[in-house]
Amino acid sequence: MKTRALVLFSGGQDSTTCLAWALKRYQHVETIGFDYGQRHLVEMECRQTILKSFKESFPEWKEKLGNDHVLDLSILSEVSDTALTASREIEFQANGLPNTFVPARNLLFFTFAATVAYRRDLQVLVGGMCETDYSGYPDCRDDTLKALQVALNLGMDQRMVLETPLMWLNKSETWDLAVQIGGKTLLEIIRKETHTCYKGERTTLHPWGYGCGDCPACELRQKGYESAEIAKQS
Ligand code: ZN
Fold first, then answer.
1. pTM, 2 dp
2. How far is the CA of 163 from the centre of ligand 1 (A)?
3. 4-195: which CATH number, 3.30.60.50, 3.30.1370.10, 3.30.70.270, 3.40.50.620?
4. pLDDT band at 155 (very low <50, low <70, confident <90, very high)
5. Which end of the chain offers a freer environment for a tag, N or C, measured as fewer CB atoms within 10 Å?
């Protein structure tokens, strides 16, 4: 039985939804975050706020939440020059990928997560990658992550499972999943405390949360919220 999970938790909408999903499903859940010189440390701060809110709002989750691991991956900013880590405008490159792309970032994240999971005896790795609102990141693809699961298990002689509960959901369905898991309480935590905006903007609270409202991440988040069932009901 696989009862112990490690969630790749960035403080964004997707990974926060995944954390709730894991807390509903597994007996013991730990979290891991990567500090890689993001342009805005907003996300890293949001993580702590969200963990605190989860414990306060869901007593049954408080029991299950274990260690929060934060790994310093500042080396990523040395090996890549992208809009997320450097002070550059977000634009699209000739290959169609936004310059926010850190090549193979998710392979690195899952590999580091697996080494921590091995040490902590955690059998499930959970990530918020998604093919549906495909922004061109090849390391978010289901096949990429299935191949990585095989490689990690062979390389460590383990039977770990990589779970990606959002893989085939669109952004609206991700909002609705949160409501199914934790009702309005979880919805409000995700709306107000998670961060997705590429520009790190957190001054104006929109119905869908904080953000600049015009970067690709905000646009996706807003569109998803507006067509979600929960938004139609309110
Ligand atoms: Zn934005």
1. 0.91
2. 28
3. 3.40.50.620
4. very high
5. N
